[in-house]
Automatic annotation (TrEMBL):
Name this protein carries in UniProt: Malate dehydrogenase
Lineage, opening ranks: Bacteria, Pseudomonadati, Bacteroidota, Flavobacteriia, Flavobacteriales
InterPro entries, alphabetized: L-lactate/malate_DH, Lactate/malate_DH_C, Lactate/malate_DH_N, Lactate_DH/Glyco_Ohase_4_C, Malate_DH_type3, NAD(P)-bd_dom_sf
Domain of life of the source: Bacteria
Segments forming domain Lactate/malate dehydrogenase C-terminal: 147-297
Catalytic activity, as annotated: (S)-malate + NAD(+) = oxaloacetate + NADH + H(+)
């Protein structure tokens, strides 16, 4: 399994580190446009190989796509992150051009690649990749829901005063402060609905904290977060590499599912060797259906800014 990560910045490097530590890929190529950065991070990571006991070969390159040839999976983390006070949508002007160019270069050298889109605004960048690359729809996955769900589970564990591993839950909808739909109704602690332990007010607080999870970190760090994003991407890469058929909320191109068409937005999906193998349609209650429609309207507005 060869994995390429374009954008050896904070999220890209963190993803490379988690992929290497889990030791399921033979090769990771980091590519960046900034001279020497990908080579330097690859070398630094390789010097952790004996300490962290992995055999994955990590190499770096400055914009030489021939080094990415034959990649099975490629992660797109290239582009600018938000600064405190910015929305993800404000990044579209710069990131759309980068994502379009990067995805086209990747496919030229790896025609059978599965792309994982991370750059923000992620749902719109995923839509852009669908519209401009001609890759089959199962080969384009937008990563947002895996991260948002991990943040949701962490917030629930805080409220429940229990370890995060006791908690299960999902966030669907757009990957934005206003678009996320945390499914509190379906979240559980060891199969018991969380509503058995937490008041409606506390659950609403958990939802609100989850939705601004990224913004909260951006304010603290001065730039957007990278550990949980990197770990979330690496979990998707692993699900593909190891054909795990795991369910993650991912940004998928919808053709009628959830009553939506011609839009990429977070829905539960099965991830395995063929990429996004299946969209899982779950029954939403009226309030959840209304929220996902509103979320889709927000994503569509951002999509309309694309010059396709
Ligand atoms: N989807 C998510 O859940 C999620 C989570 C966190 C961050 N993000 C997004 O991921 C992106 C990366 O975030 P980051 O914190 O790693 O940023 P960063 O600035 O640390 O890294 C971005 C890297 O991309 C490189 N780059 C820019 N243009 C390039 C090009 N044309 N080709 C190759 N490399 C190029 C830059 O040189 C830089 O090293 C941002 O858009 C951010 O908003 C998404």
């Amino acid at each position: 399994m060869k994995v390429t990560i374009v954008g050896a910045g904070a999220v890209g490097a963190s993803c490379a580190e988690y992929v290497a530590i889990k030791d399921f890929a033979s090769e990771v190529v980091l590519l960046d446009i900034k001279e020497g950065v990908a080579e330097g991070k690859a070398m630094d990571l390789m010097q952790t190989a004996t300490l962290n006991s992995f055999d994955t070969q990590i190499t770096g390159t400055t914009n030489d796509y021939s080094k990415t040839a034959g990649s099975d999976v490629a992660v797109i983390t290239s582009g600018i992150p938000r600064k405190p006070g910015m929305t993800r949508e404000e990044l579209i002007g710069i990131n759309a051009g980068i994502v379009k160019e990067v995805s086209s270069n990747l496919i030229k050298h790896s025609p059978n690649v599965t792309l994982i889109v991370v750059s923000n605004p992620m749902d719109t960048m995923t839509y852009l990749v669908h519209k401009t690359t001609g890759l089959p729809k199962n080969k384009i996955i937008g990563m947002g829901g895996a991260l948002d769900s991990a943040r949701f589970k962490f917030r629930l564990s805080e409220a429940l005063e229990c370890p995060p591993s006791d908690v299960n839950g999902m966030v669907i909808g757009g990957h934005s402060d206003t678009g996320m739909v945390p499914l509190t109704r379906l979240a559980t602690r060891n199969s018991i609905p969380v509503s058995a332990f937490l008041s409606e007010d506390r659950l609403n607080q958990v939802s609100e904290d989850t939705k601004v999870g990224g913004a909260t970190l951006t304010k603290l760090l001065g730039t957007s977060a990278w550990y949980a994003p990197g770990a979330a991407v690496s979990a998707l890469v692993q699900a593909i590499a190891c054909n795990q058929k795991k369910m993650f909320p991912c940004s998928a191109m919808l053709e009628g599912e959830y009553g939506l068409n011609d839009i990429c937005i977070g829905v539960p999906a099965i991830i395995g060797k063929d990429g996004l193998e299946k969209i899982v349609e779950i029954e939403l209650d009226d309030a959840e259906s209304k929220k996902i429609k509103e979320s889709a309207e927000g994503v569509s507005k951002t999509n309309a800014l694309l010059e396709l």
